[in-house]
Design a protein that fits this description.
The protein is built from eleven helices and ten strands. The protein has 372 residues and is of the alpha/beta class.
Length: 372
């Protein structure tokens, strides 16, 4: 047997597609638009896909955008598996996926874990409707969620596609582990366990917020708390994104030590700041290189990756199981279906009843599902 060669020398790459990202921010500040602009400007329209997840609104305000919608966990997993399996044949230029949003990712994952638990139990009294009770409790359900999210959402990196997660913010009280002193911080609105599942695995966590300057500041007593507070008028405001915060009032993270503390929430500015930080870090370890040399090296690495990456084998799926799952979904949603349209589809495909899913054509089930 040939002797295995262990390890390789790492190189710092000046390439947005070689890093992973999470941007948190308040609703409506422009996170989705900014991420889409970054992806398209860097990799082209066919190089960036925005994946709208769960109940997130579809991006009707953005034109010329490659977009797909995943309404449940099974749909999300199928989309990612398809993109990975057929990356070289059908999606050769795909380099970045925007996941909008992490809140919905975990909601769908929780729903799937509850569904898996309820399928395993035999007694109706053992069925559950909360993640806390799944698989015996004691955080077993939450741990299953973390495993699913880590396995599925980050799978794309093995195929040369980088994830860009989008999330929402909330002000929370934190506790220092050593001193046990509490402090306030703007961070993700996810619970800490779920948030760390994403934060710990990406290279850069940024936070978008509105930076305001005030004038005519005066102290007044709050009518409810009876405490004194500062009241002022807004003089100016602008949208910014933070990469570093020395005061730790904002929960951010970066593996790039030369990244600026903050900049305007503008796709061109963010791209420039990220690339400048990558270039300085690369020069620190490897010396200077021209932009042409960097681009040539990255392109060669991409070609090598597409040549050597093995195509995964498609799993053998039992069609009867798929039919049964689709039929169960139809039965549970009969109240939402127009009966006249349903009877028309059943008549067209010669379906007398739903007793035996094996005799029902798959296309008939798919057609009925569109009525839900």
């Amino acid at each position: 047997m040939a002797r295995r060669k262990i390890g390789k020398i790492r190189e710092v790459k000046v390439d947005l597609g070689s890093y992973s990202y999470l941007i948190n921010g308040t609703a409506g500040i422009g996170k989705t638009t900014t991420v889409c602009e970054i992806g398209q400007k860097e990799f082209g329209v066919d190089g960036f896909l925005l994946l709208t997840i769960g109940k997130e609104p579809e991006p009707e305000h953005i034109g010329n955008l490659w977009n797909e919608v995943a309404r449940d966990w099974d749909d999300l997993e199928e989309i990612i598996d398809t993109l990975c399996e057929y990356k070289n044949e059908d999606y050769p230029n795909l380099r970045m996926i925007g996941y909008d949003s992490v809140d919905e990712i975990f909601r769908l994952a929780e729903n799937k874990v509850i569904e898996l638990h309820n399928k395993k139990v035999t007694s109706p009294s053992d069925k559950i409707d909360t993640i806390k009770s799944a698989f015996g409790g004691f955080q077993a359900g939450e741990n299953k969620v973390l495993d699913m999210v880590s396995t599925v959402l980050f799978k794309i990196q093995e195929y040369g596609i980088t994830p860009f997660f989008i999330g929402h913010t909330k002000q929370k009280n934190r506790t220092d582990l050593l001193t046990e002193i509490e402090f306030e911080q703007v961070t993700s609105n996810l619970n800490n366990k779920y948030y760390n599942c994403i934060k710990d695995k990406v290279n850069i966590v940024m936070c978008a917020y509105m930076e305001r300057e005030f004038t005519d500041i005066a102290q007044r007593k709050d009518a409810f708390t009876k405490k004194m507070k500062d009241i002022g008028a807004i003089q100016s405001e602008k949208r910014v994104v933070s990469f570093r915060d020395e005061s730790y009032a904002i929960d951010v993270k970066s593996h790039l030590k030369y990244i600026c503390p903050k900049c305007d929430l503008d796709s061109d500015v963010i791209i420039k700041e990220l690339k400048d930080a990558m270039k300085k870090q690369s020069e620190y370890f490897h010396g200077e290189a021209t932009e042409e040399e960097i681009k040539s090296k990255i392109e060669n690495e991409r070609k090598e990756m597409s040549k050597t990456k093995p195509k995964p084998k498609s799993p053998q799926i039992d069609e009867s199981v798929i039919k049964e799952e689709k039929l169960n979904k139809i039965k549970s949603s009969l109240s939402k279906i127009n009966m006249t349209q349903l009877q028309s589809i059943m008549g067209k495909h010669g379906i007398a009843n739903f007793n035996d899913p094996t005799v029902i054509p798959m296309e008939a089930l798919d057609e009925i599902l569109t009525l839900i």
